[in-house]
């Protein structure tokens, strides 16, 4: 039994590594189960001995990407007590990760799973972990905010930064040029920090709507 489990885990790892390499080389849109299994050195049917289907493989590749991204943001914030500096570091680390691992980062948002597939709780929890890098600095800036407000504002800020990064790296019409992107993201975070602090005296972003 132990040997069988070990073989299955080894096959899972080969499949994940092969799928990840394919995504890096050509993007998630062209990922095909037959190619992945050929790269993994196994028959096509072996996929279903290790995963539910190709969607399940991508879920686990995305999980590994989220682990790396979370680690990069943790490293960027480490030792920074000032919340404004921590938010700056997290935003710029997010941009750096997206640039350095663009196909894998894109797969987090671009892959289309089966329409009736519900994201597993463990992956949703990993996604939520990213917000910690925003929630903790915001809590220092606004200790008067309750947890629901902190989470809401963290989601808004994450969405805003992600939108700027995404439109710029994908070279969409409102995107920023590469030489301005980091500078403008930093300036945007400065505006958010200033607005958050000003909100303690009634500013719009600082209002909880109570």
UniProtKB/TrEMBL annotation:
Keyword Transcription recorded: yes
Organism: Aureimonas pseudogalii
Annotated signal peptide: none
Domain HTH-type transcriptional regulator MT1864/Rv1816-like C-terminal: 87-180
This protein's name: AcrR family transcriptional regulator
Pfam families linked: TetR_C_33
Gene3D superfamilies: Tetracycline Repressor, domain 2 (1.10.357.10)
Superkingdom of origin organism: Bacteria
Keywords (A to Z) from UniProt: Transcription, Transcription regulation
InterPro entries according to UniProt: Homeodomain-like_sf (IPR009057), MT1864/Rv1816-like_C (IPR025996), Tet_transcr_reg_TetR-rel_C_sf (IPR036271)
